[in-house]
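Quick question about two entries, pasted in order.
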Amino acid sequence: MATTTYTPSMLRGAGTRGIPEIPAGSSFSNTKSIDFDGIDDYIDCGTYDDFFSSRSPDTKMSFSFWFKTSPSGDAHPKYFFSCANYTNGLNGYIKSGIVYFGTSSSTIATSTSTYDDGNWHHCLGVWDNLGTTPTRLWIDGVLVGTDTSTRVNNFNEKPFYLGRETGGTGYKCYGGNLDEFAVWEGDMSGDVATIWGGGTPTDLTSLSPVAWWRMGDKVTSWPTIPDQVGSNNGTAYNENEATMVVSDVP
């Protein structure tokens, strides 16, 4: 009796003789993150205007990233990112184990649980600088904070940093890991489940972020941290690749 050996390439597409299709493999993989020392490490991603087409304040913004910190009892904010200037801007940071998404002078959306526990967590924040919808914060796919007050900030030509606050001397830095940092111009609240991926980073290409830093993945020429979807590459400061790029991922 003759036999036929079917290869994966033969079985993709419509399938062969009723045999279930074998999906083509995805090119997406996540094997590296960036480890910030909490002292002076940070990534300079240019300015707000480099990747947002709408001039402030007429815009909505969404930010997605994965983070892992170690319990420290640190009373000072550890900044995931900062946008705009030192006193009037948008920041995402952790203080005393609580995740904040807001300005340096006021809290916009605050989580109801502590996440400074040494485990990986996902954060999605939606900031409405128009004041027409609440500013909201999701952790691990769950809505944990909402703020309905209107706060308008001027972001024009201000720096966008990952891992530190903007401006000032003795600026505060983030201590821990960051991974898969993406930015959208718009409200991505309807895609929370897809972006969170049930607890595993996913390919965000189809969701069209305006910037997406894979962090440790895709780094080919240190200290450049490539923008996966645009030309807004980041530049890492105050650390070498061997120390900052690590095999620790969600």
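Here is the second entry:
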Amino acid sequence: MTIGTVAVPRMALAGRMTNVALAVVLSIALGTGAAAFAVGTGWDRWVATVHGAAGFGLLLIVPWKWPIVRRGTRRRGGVWAAPAAVFAFLVVTSLAAGAAHSTGLLRTTGPLTAMQVHVGAALLAVPFAIWHVLARPVRLRRTDLSRRTLLRAGGIAAGSLALYGISAGAIDLTGAPGSKRRSTGSFDGSATPTVADDLPVTQWLFDRVPAINSASWRLMVVEADERRELMLEALDAMREPVEATIDCTGGWYSTQTWEGARLDRLIDTAGARSVVVSSETGYSRRFPARDAPRLWLATRVGGLPLQLEHGFPARLVAPGRRGFWWVKWVTRIERSDEPWWWQSPFPLR
């Protein structure tokens, strides 16, 4: 086959386009995976659908990629084969763990959940993917947007969505555990309404359960020209009930009746752009000031005081947001002139 005056073997062209397709689908899978962690309500179902379809897209590309891998291994030997094998292993592991979680047939393996294995393997694969791109750079050409290429891309997209739809339908028809998942992909994490009994205990990354003395605990409220402290009794006296669903990125959710004080009753947000909620551990998240009426600082759940592992003496309840926004062991709320998005998309600790 010729492009301009340069002869290009058909197999080389096919290999080049396969690598481009693989890079695109991997990028979509990683991007939607990150978005699925961030989105609590609204677009969650669409994000989960595209993410699942991207996984099937990777499977559809395998028949074209496998001959390229074999040729590259023969030419370059072990130096090329070792990292390529690790990359392939991590991608396959992530796909398998994702399928195990989606169907609900294997939700835990040893101390890890299938979701943790799925995400961990995907993150470990990222540097290998970057290495692959740098080691074998592919230049995009105008001819890459040919009608044939676009039809093939459309075929992969349609096939991926069709396979995802078939798999989702099969899960529902067979009544597999995965049919009971929330639109975010999470499973119900509590079998009874009493959170003290069975709500999973999870922290974000390296956060740890602190030792807190309720008698000496104080909530620091920082406003424009004033600082004041509230004792637990004063905060508890302001509580009102709110039913809200905590949806953890670990793959579980729980709908509970929480009792707490609305943030707009605790802090004056007039003129502020955001409110920063901080934990005893140093963990914090920044929220839009306009959301203060829809955020609660809870002291009780399921009719009982919070347990230490679940954020005692006070934790944030943020309906519609994923679990890492629900700051535990809150000791400080502060109005800020910074925009709410002036923070890392995900906590760094």
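Reply: The domain at 188-336 is CATH 3.90.420.10 (Sulfite Oxidase; Chain A, domain 2). The radius of gyration is 25 Å. Hope that helps.
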